[in-house]
Structures are given as C-alpha cells and as structure tokens.
Design goal:
This is Helicase-like protein. It is built from 30 helices and 27 strands. It is of the alpha+beta class and about 900 residues long. It has a domain of about 350 residues.
C-alpha cells in the first residue's frame, strides 16, 4: 500500500486543530500554548475557539491579550467611537496574566480552554508574597531605606510634591488622548519635562546619535521602575486587587472598633504615604508608556526606526514588575481622569516621617503666622461610569440574579465619588460612613505578624469584607482594574454591595472563591469545584467567573459557604518549572496528526475512525439519571466568629488555609438516582466533590470536505457492524462524522453505566484493561495500556435524543485508485457537487463559527448524566476533557488529551 503524500495528509486533516506550545522570545517567561489550523484558509475554520468571547466593553480589562470584544449589550455608535479613538498604534508589553482570561471560560459551562489549562501550572497565583509588601500599612526597613536612597541620590528620582505628581498626571491624560505626531519638538518637550521635574538627567551620554531621543528617556525610566524593593509588583494577584484599596479604602481612626486589626493612627499615615508612592509609580508608568506609544506609532508610520539591540535591551531591563506597571498605566490613562475641584485650606502640622520632610509636603508656608496654607484640591474620577454600570446590569442578567430590590441604576449614585471625583488631598476621603465604620474594609490579610503562609496552589482563595459603596465597588465602577481574575471578584462584590437585601441576608464577609445561597438559588465561583460540577446541569448559567444554579444545598439557608477540597498529587507536582507547559516538544509530539510515525512514510492503514458507542458483546443498558441532592454538611467548629478570629491572631479576612469569620466550611457531596429502563431497578449513588480538578472544552473541529468514506466489510473495524438488511451495498458511501486517528493513540471506551457499577477502581486499572478489552477502541493489537479513557455519556440515555450513525472503516485508499473490498475505506478527493450538503459536514462548514458563539445554543446544553460524570471525576481526582458530539470529533479530542497530558475524555451528546 502506497504512503500518503503531504498533500493527501493536508486534505485528510483539513479542519482538524493542531496543538502547539512555543516561546515568545527572551525574557517572556513560560511558553505560549496555542491551537491553530495551519492547512486551512477559511475564516469559518480558523476562527473556531474553545472558549467564549468577552461580551461587554466594561469587561475588556480582564485580559492583557489583544482581543475583540463581542459587545452584545452596548451601543454600536459608542463602540465605533471607541474603536476610532484607539486606531493609532499602541505598545503592548510582552507580559500577560496567567492563566489567560481569554481561555478561562470554556464553551462548556464550568470548563476552560486548552491554553488556560496548560498555564495553570505557571499561574500568577503560585507566586509568593512580594518581600516587604506583605501588608497594606507598613513597609520593612529594606523598602524604606531603598526609597530614601533613591530620593536623596543624584542618579534617579527627584523628590516631588504630590500636587506636582497630580498636575503631571493631568497633562499626561491630555497628551494620551491627543493624536500627537512624532516630531522633534515633542521629543524635546518630553525630555525637558522628564529630566527637569521627575528624574535626574543621566550621568553619561547613552545615545551619541541623539542624546535627547525617546530611547534615552525610556532607558532612564526603566532603570528607576526596575529598582528593587521600591515599587508594588502587580504581577502578584493580591496587589492587582488591592490597587483600589490604596486609592479609595482609607481607614479612619474609628473604622474598626472590634479589636480585630492592629491599625493605629500611625498605620493610617503609612497607608496615605503608600498612596503617594502608588501615584508616583503610576506617573512613572504613564511617562514610560506615552514614550513607548510614540515610538510604536512612529514605527507604524515609517518615521521611526528601532534598532534590534535597543529592543533586546528593553526586554532585558524591563522586568516583570516594570511591564505590569505599564499595564497599570494603560488602565489609568484609559479610565481615570484627575481633576481640580477647588482649593483647600488645612492646618500645617509639624513634619512627620522622612517622606514628608524630604518632599516638604507639610512644611510649605511655614513662615505664615496662622500656620495654614491654601492649595488646589484634586480628585480622581472614572471616565466611563455608565459603561461599567451597564456591564454590571449585563452580568446580573446573565447570572439570572433574583429580582430582590436590586436596581443597577442606583449603582452610580452609591459610588457618586467615582462619578464626581474622589478627593485625593485630604484624609477625609474615606468611603466609609460612620454607620459602617465598625467593619474592616481591608481585602486580604493586613496583619503581617499573623499572616497565614500559603502553600503553592493553582488557585488562591480570596475573601473580603463588603460594605455599601466600598472600594471594591469603586474599583469596578471606575474601570481601574488590572488583567486577571480580579474582575470576577469586583463584579460580584459590586453586585452584592449595591443590593441591600443581599447584604442583609448574606452578611458582610464574602468568600469570593467559594459560593453562597441566596433567594432560592446558589451562586458559585468557577474556582469552586461545586460550581464546576453544577454548571453541567440544565438551567445553570455562567458569566465572568461565576455560575448560578437552581440547585441549592439541602438544609442550608442563605449564606456563604467554603467548600473543603484538596488538589490532586499530579497537579501539585506539576507547578512552576515542573509544569507541563515547559515540555514544548512533548506537547506537540503527543498530539501530532501522524502520531509517532515518520511523516514521509504514513500509510493509510495507520489510521482509524474512533467511536465511543460501539460495543461488541452487548449493548450497554438504557438508563435514566436523576439528580437528587447537593449536601453540604458543616464541619464541627467550622463556623468562625469574629471573637475566635481575634483569639487565633487572624485578621477579618484570611488567605488560603482559614475561611473568613461566619462562613461555614463544608465537604460537598452530590446524590443521584440511576434507573435501569429495562428492569426498572433504581439505586442511589453519592459522590464526594473532594478534589480540585478541572474540565477542559475539547477544541471544535470541522470534518474535511476533501474526504469521502466508504464502508467495506473486509476492513478490520467494520467487521463489528452488521451491514446486512438496511445496507445492501457493502461499499456504500457514508457521510463524514470526524477526523481519522493514528494508531499511536490507544484508547478504551467505557459506558457511564459500567463506570457507575464499578465499586473500587482506579484510572490506571481501567486503562490497563486495554489489551484484553473487547470494546471498539481496543481493536488495534497491542499489549500496552490505553493512553485515554473515553466515558460514553451518549449511548442509551432515555433523556437524550439519539441519531443512528454507522461507524466507518479505518483504512484509507489513495485518490483515484480502485476501491477493492480489501483496502477500500477512505477516498481522498476534491469536493464534488454533492459533498457540501451531505450529513453533518455540509451544515457544519457553513455555520460552525456561528454555533461556537451562540449563547442560546450554549444554554441548552446540560443534563443530569453530565453532572454525574463530572462528580465521579471530582471524587476520583481526574482532570477531564469534555467533547461534545457535532462540535468536535473524538479523534481531535484524543489528540488534545495527549497534548495536555489528560487521561479522561467525557463524550457528551
């Protein structure tokens, strides 16, 4: 039999995704996983994705990756205006959130995409705390000394009045919105501003061709921002979320009266000092970003030439902290406006602290007899408040939020300071009213002496104290958010803080990585395994990291819960440098279309068409699965009170190991009733949701238009199918249902009913039965274990409509050859007139892209059997790929499993 040519391979695997993992360059961290269709040019195929699109312009800051927002709610004219405003070139730092938020929301509810799953092993949440920045209101001597050194030396940062920082931010805001040209006058103006007001000029000439060039200015700014132990490193997840706390979460002396935190007047002063350093960091980031944008724009217009050596030096010197400061600067320039609101007259006390002395912020007009001084009053306000409020409304509708006194129109009124401007010059700018001042507004642990050290985990648990119009709401409504998981926390916090009924019934302490029961529904973060299992049920909804369900825990009323889970040993071991994402060659080798063979000598007989629903000895029983209950039984002494937290030395909000006070810690179980439709027998099965596993949406594919498949009784696989009766011709052409699979990929198919009946089993034991199994997936002679377990959740379920499909022969014949009974199965052809309308393929090629992004179609998916199989995986600790028939074929899912190192595929209708 002749080998397949390269052209024939391309035809066979047209529409089949191929899985990659490649480095983006030096100093860019872990490689970038991607899925591509290298042999297809049609946009309907190339645009297929395994994840949902961002659906609102208010949520666009969730990711640092360039993307197109599918704004299903907004005004088209407003979207067009925003697009025109961003038409000029922008600089994009080669540093993004991990896992990428674009891939976190898989097409299957409660799942993620290929890229996000691989990036979990190098997730941002795995990082330890930034040394010296573990808490909000105090800094270690190392940080203080470094800042003193930077301000007192003649090589670096000048000391600046806070008013000057704000004035320069106003100027940068105007400059950012202008369509400025790359002119020498602009370069000189930027040079003079930078080195006369903000930085000391460089001690030596850095560019002899042009000593005043933008490159010289960029190098100076990078040097200061890259200095260690000075600036907040926003590559850490907690600080991306706490950003708004420094700007809007000011404590007052009477804010906390329960003794739960050790804040004093001195610590409040330190927090205001940290706000000064944050504003200075934002200023330096804006100065750097504007210059990088100018160079990028000049390169785009052909009036600027950047030398490769300069690019290499920038990528080397601009560490991760610098690049995240650039993300902060972009968020600030696009969403925040600094305004003058009048003048302020305040007493002039004695200088306190080294920073006040150096900057002379509190010693102006010392000669005045009344010891008072007057100055402008500055405020910060959001530019797009209405857009953010509309996004919150969209979020509430998608989650089917109970209509209980929630009026999104009042959100902007509740956070009026964001709309009108929050004062920056005075400590009276606390968002807390005296009625709410008894609760801590702190997010995360604020007492470094008693901080709970976390062990490396792919997900960091986040908790917070909520209060009306708090800094969490202000962070969202202002739009000042950094890429990453923070947006999901801000959305839910803003929703709760502006629903008085929810605040009253749920209480002030929130577990934003757990779940809560409210008004006859349950809401779960996708970080919680309970949410990821319930998402597979009918009637569930998912939006921006949250899942709602009509299923509520038995016996529990309104309130927050923390679900007790543990990570699997395999996931714990595959983190950081040991993560699979670093094995670039292994990922691609384990998912190649020609398996372990030589691409120059691939035979037609090396391939089969895999199926999950063909059983040789007997058909699996027809069963009905019915969900019974979700059980959350609180552990003894798990409900912590404020008093017990103080006794243990914990702050109101804890990190990973301990839940917030007043929140129940519960192990979760689910119970199902399984009925045999033939015998009428019923039995209840209970599964523990104890492992923090993940589900991945199998990437969509489109069957090749260049392949016709012929059934042949002499082919090895077709011998298992009775072709007599309704199929008189043994070589009749059948419709395309999937891509071929190389024999390198061994798998075994197991019906869900068989899996349920097994009492004590392991994945290794199931895969080890490969060589002796009589199932369809085990026909290739081999003594080794199967690589993948396919769980059949399609065949024999009464609640699922079935369509009859005849499995196809595994042997390929060359185009144009005689299709004999011995070798005929596939024919590689050019598409004929009748090809496009035949079976699933004809419709799929034309409408695949629409179906992938159809929210209506997505909501229809879900069933009790799908919840059951997810529950089994959660109890056993199996990460699983969910492959939905007619969205993607089984062969492509098996290859993706090889790329990800996942050993279980759930095949659903």
């Amino acid at each position: 039999m002749a080998t397949l040519t390269e052209s024939e391979l391309e035809k066979l695997f047209s529409g089949a995704p191929q899985y990659f993992c490649r480095s983006e360059g030096h100093y860019t961290g872990a490689p970038h996983p991607s899925v591509a269709f290298p042999w297809d040019e049609k946009l309907e195929i190339r645009d297929l994705t395994d994840h949902t699109q961002i659906e609102d312009r208010a949520w666009t800051r969730v990711t640092a990756w360039p993307h197109i927002t599918r704004d299903v709610q907004g005004d088209r004219s407003a979207a067009k205006k925003a697009s025109e405003e961003k038409r000029r070139a922008h600089f994009y730092p080669r540093c993004r959130e991990r896992p990428t938020m674009l891939s976190v929301g898989g097409l299957e509810k409660g799942s993620m995409g290929y890229q996000a799953f691989l990036e979990l092993g190098v997730a941002d949440a795995l990082q330890e705390e930034q040394p010296g920045f573990e808490s909000m209101g105090s800094r270690t001597p190392t940080v203080v000394e470094q800042r003193q050194k930077m301000l007192t030396s003649k090589d670096g940062l000048r000391h600046m009045e806070e008013n000057l920082i704000l004035e320069q931010l106003i100027k940068n805001g105007r400059r950012y919105s202008e369509q400025h040209l790359r002119e020498r006058r602009v370069t000189s103006e930027l040079y003079n501003e930078l080195f006369l007001q903000i930085l000391h000029p460089p001690a030596k000439v850095l560019d002899h061709r042009d000593p005043y060039s933008l490159t010289v200015q960029i190098s100076a700014l990078v040097k200061v921002l890259a200095a260690p132990n000075m600036w907040i490193d926003f590559s850490h997840v907690e600080w991306r979320i706490r950003l708004g706390q420094l700007l809007w979460g000011y404590p007052t002396e009477d804010e906390i009266d329960d003794g739960m935190s050790a804040k004093t007047t001195d610590s409040a002063t330190e927090i205001f000092e940290e706000r000064y350093w944050l504003l200075l960091q934002i200023l330096l980031g804006c100065e750097l970003l504007i210059r990088l944008d100018a160079i990028t724009e000049g390169e785009e217009l052909g009036i600027e030439s950047i030398r490769p050596a300069e690019i290499h030096r920038f990528e080397k010197d601009a560490n991760k902290s610098v690049k995240w400061t650039l993300h902060l600067a972009r968020a600030w320039l696009e969403n925040i406006e600094v305004i003058k609101t009048g003048t302020i007259e305040e007493p002039d006390p004695e200088p306190t602290g080294w920073l006040a002395t150096l900057t002379k912020r509190m010693s102006i007009s010392r000669t005045h007899e009344n010891h008072h001084h007057r100055g402008p009053l500055y405020a910060i306000k959001g530019k797009h408040v209405q857009r953010q409020v509309d996004g919150l409304t969209h979020f509430a509708r998608k989650l089917r939020w109970p209509d209980v006194d929630f009026e999104p129109s009042k959100v902007s009124d509740n956070v009026r300071s964001v709309t009108d401007g929050a004062p920056l010059n005075t400590p009276l700018a606390s968002p807390l009213s005296r009625a709410e001042s008894h609760r801590s507004s702190y997010f995360g642990d604020s007492n470094s002496d008693h901080r709970v050290k976390h062990t490396p985990s792919r997900r960091r648990k986040i908790s917070a104290a909520l209060h009306p119009s708090g800094w969490l709401s202000k962070s969202y409504v202002s739009g000042l958010m950094l890429p990453g998981e923070g947006l999901s926390h801000f959305l839910m916090s803003t929703l709760l803080e502006n629903d008085p009924d929810a605040m009253e019934r749920l209480g002030p302490m929130a577990n934003l990585c757990g779940g809560f029961i409210y008004s006859g529904k349950s809401f779960w973060s996708t970080s919680c395994i309970v949410g990821r299992v319930l998402a597979a049920g009918k009637g569930s909804a998912e939006c921006m990291g949250w899942i709602s369900s009509d299923i509520t825990p038995r016996g529990l009323g309104d309130g927050w819960v923390d679900v007790k889970v543990e990570e699997t040993l395999e996931d714990v071991q595959q983190v950081d440098k040991k993560a699979r994402i670093w094995a670039k060659q292994l990922i691609e080798r384990e998912s190649r279309i020609f398996g372990d063979g030589d691409p120059s000598s691939v035979l037609p007989a090396d391939f089969i068409i895999p199926f999950e629903n063909v059983y040789k000895d007997r058909s699996p029983p027809s069963i009905r699965v019915e969900f019974r209950s979700l059980n959350l039984k609180a552990l003894e002494n798990s409900i912590r009170t404020a008093a017990s937290s103080v006794a243990d030395g914990l702050t109101p909000v804890s990190d990973v190991s301990t839940p917030p006070p007043g929140i129940r810690t519960c192990p979760a179980t689910v119970t199902f009733t399984v009925s045999d439709n033939d015998t009428g027998d019923e039995r209840d099965y209970t599964y523990s949701l104890s492992k923090d596993i993940n589900f991945v949406t199998a990437h969509p594919c489109v069957p090749s238009p260049h392949v016709k498949i012929l059934k042949s009784p002499s082919s090895p696989t077709i011998q298992q199918v009775d072709l007599s009766g309704s199929t008189p011709s043994s070589t009749k052409t059948a419709s395309i249902v999937g891509h071929p699979l190389h024999k390198y990929y061994t798998y075994t198919a197991l019906h869900l009913s068989e899996l349920i009946m097994k009492q004590d089993f392991s994945l290794e034991a199931l895969l080890g039965d490969y060589s002796s199994s009589s199932r369809r997936g085990s026909m290739t002679p081999s003594a080794k274990a199967a690589k993948v377990l396919v769980i059949d959740c399609i065949t024999g379920f009464k609640s699922l409509p079935q369509e009859h499909e005849i499995p196809l022969s595994p042997v390929v014949s060359r185009s144009g050859s005689n299709l004999s009974a011995a070798d005929s199965a596939w024919s590689v052809t050019s598409p004929g007139a009748g090809d496009s309308g035949e079976g699933f393929f004809g419709a799929a090629l034309e409408s695949a892209s629409k179906k992938m992004h159809s929210e209506t179609r997505r909501r229809q998916f879900g069933s009790d059997p799908e919840m059951l199989v997810r529950a089994i995986c959660a109890e056993k600790g199996w990460n699983a790929i969910i492959s939905r028939r007619r969205r993607g074929c089984l062969a492509c899912a098996i290859r993706e499993a090889g790329a990800l190192g996942v050993k279980v595929i759930i095949r659903v209708d």
